[in-house]
Amino acid sequence: MAQSLIYLLLAWVVVTAPSDGNPALAQKCESLELPHFEEFDVINVHSSSVFGYSITGNPTQTTIDFCHVNVSLTHSGADDIVLTSIWLPFHGWNGRFQATGGGGLAAGYFDSALIQPVVDGYAAGSTDAGLTLNNTLLAGDGSWALTPEGKLNQGLIKNFAYRSIHDMTVIGKAATVALYGQRPHHSYYTGCSTGGRQGYLAAQYYPEDFDGIMANAPAIFTPRVSPGDFWPVVVMENIVAPPQCVFSAFQAATVRHCDPQDGATDGLISAPDKCDYNPKTLVGQTVDCPELSASVVITTAHADVAAKILEGARTSSGDFLWFGNPPGAAFDGLANTTVVNGTIDIVPFSSGEAWMKYFVAQDPELDTKHISFDTFESLYFRSVELFTDKLGTDNPDLSGFKNAGGKLMTWHGMADAYITHPGTTLYWDKLQKKMGGRHAVDDFYRVFLAPGVAHCRGGYGPVPSDPFAALVNWVEKGEAPDTLFASTTSQGGQVNRNLCHYPESLRYRGGDLNDAESFICSLSSYNTLNMSNPEIYTVGWVASLPVEGDAAGAFLDEEHGLLAS
Ligand SMILES: *[C@@H]1O[C@H](CO)[C@@H](O)[C@H](O)[C@H]1NC(C)=O
Ligand SMILES: *[C@@H]1O[C@H](CO)[C@@H](O)[C@H](O)[C@H]1NC(C)=O
Ligand SMILES: *[C@@H]1O[C@H](CO)[C@@H](O)[C@H](O)[C@H]1NC(C)=O
Ligand SMILES: *[C@@H]1O[C@H](CO)[C@@H](O)[C@H](O)[C@H]1NC(C)=O
Ligand SMILES: *[C@@H]1O[C@H](CO)[C@@H](O)[C@H](O)[C@H]1NC(C)=O
């Protein structure tokens, strides 16, 4: 308490320092001295003052002034060059540090991720984890996974998996000491997708780095998720590639059929486990297809493709490998096609394709246009075998993080095809079993599912408005978020929801369907209460999918103890 009062006073001093360019800080910035770091060798530090950096899309502020610190570093034995950027605002530093993550096969987004934190008064950091090979490559293309000799680049994989967010955070905290003369009083992490995975990783392996972690739509279980993301392409290659108009018809029909099953016909599927949509019901119907300038009659093969994509990756004998497109999610992310001169071509999801080529097959020439179901199955198991240790990120023991007082918050769209929310609820389930049940877990870990929301943003359902503020309140004021306010205008009018904290889910109690107050949070709608142990909940959506004795049954049994009964 006394300590935070001192921080407050210090922060106040900084805030009220002369702000016309803040010459003292700017001067300090130009010759910033960072300490020696144990974790890595610094190659180069370059810091300079940036004035009037212009930003767009912010109604109240159009420019920011900050100290831009670039640190390049290397790890002994890794032959890597990691670029790390820390931005430290010259005016109104709020006394906090915010680390930011990446997405796909990239570890960080630099400017686009750092602007908002700096506008909000945070010192903030981003890292490329060495994946751009000293700015010669776009990290997202994934080719960094192989050395010039064609072997897995273990150093970079280690950086991507866990090392670089930690390094960046160590540098960021040191930079606030060097510039402002004090460590941040609170440190946060924020990221989505791969950025979400990086956040879980931090909670699992560097439990003291952050007081609060916002890790949304996390790519935990990456060694399963990534080949799973390539499944729709394999299905289309081996059966038929439908035009997008056909997929849109399946998506719309799924929503029509399953939306009412959660008790509210609001255009949103809030209880996907109840969704029993059968694509065969559309066979024979005609859909208008602008991209072909024609009408298309939906065939049995089209329905088969949609069913397999909804079901998710399976072995060639039909056993569960991973979760499919959530019902109501758009197909175009992972099952994209385009019409070229009247012919329908498959457009593979680039990160999924890169994963198969560079990480799993380790063959840049892999013919991703012709992968049989058998080959897919062996690539899937190879992915799991090679990368689960480093990139599984599913260690359910968060006791270090809990004991350090950390809070981990996640929201996940339920119409996210790229990283499906059952992966997140599977982790939640493992965690609560390991750490004393759901109420014990509530103290430091909360998950919010958002019906109709796509990957990290977008879709057609209400998107959380300011989840980060909720996290900061939780960390600094002890106000744990029971619900997360979300809204959208994507369908015209405004639709609001108070998203429930898992395992509770939205239940309609009557009234205006656009109004958050018309819904309550309740336990029973898609979870099964185990009466002999009311603290432990079984996730219906997860438990209903795998069949006893199949690959997933074995996976879930052995590694997660989920299907023990
Ligand atoms: C830091 O690196 C970025 C990206 O390479 C570059 O745009 C920027 O000018 C650098 N700033 C400093 C102060 O070195
Ligand atoms: C990395 O790139 C910078 C800027 O292009 C260059 O000055 C430096 O020599 C490069 N480092 C290495 C080790 O190649
Ligand atoms: C689908 O592919 C088309 C053509 O390449 C591309 O313009 C579009 O952005 C892709 N859609 C998605 C969701 O990736
Ligand atoms: C489309 O067809 C025309 C005429 O046959 C040809 O010149 C063109 O290269 C084709 N375009 C593509 C993208 O294949
Ligand atoms: C319910 O919990 C008890 C005690 O933990 C366990 O033995 C049993 O298998 C569980 N039943 C189900 C259906 O999960």
Automatic annotation (TrEMBL):
<comment type="similarity">
    <text>Belongs to the tannase family.</text>
</comment>
<keyword id="KW-1015">Disulfide bond</keyword>
<dbReference type="InterPro" id="IPR029058">
    <property type="entry name" value="AB_hydrolase_fold"/>
</dbReference>
<keyword id="KW-0106">Calcium</keyword>
<dbReference type="GO" id="GO:0046872">
    <property type="term" value="F:metal ion binding"/>
</dbReference>
<keyword id="KW-0732">Signal</keyword>
<dbReference type="GO" id="GO:0030600">
    <property type="term" value="F:feruloyl esterase activity"/>
</dbReference>
<keyword id="KW-0479">Metal-binding</keyword>
<dbReference type="InterPro" id="IPR011118">
    <property type="entry name" value="Tannase/feruloyl_esterase"/>
</dbReference>
<protein>
    <recommendedName>
        <fullName>Carboxylic ester hydrolase</fullName>
        <ecNumber>3.1.1.-</ecNumber>
    </recommendedName>
</protein>
<keyword id="KW-0719">Serine esterase</keyword>
<feature type="signal peptide">
    <location>
        <begin position="1"/>
        <end position="21"/>
    </location>
</feature>
<keyword id="KW-0378">Hydrolase</keyword>
<dbReference type="Pfam" id="PF07519">
    <property type="entry name" value="Tannase"/>
</dbReference>
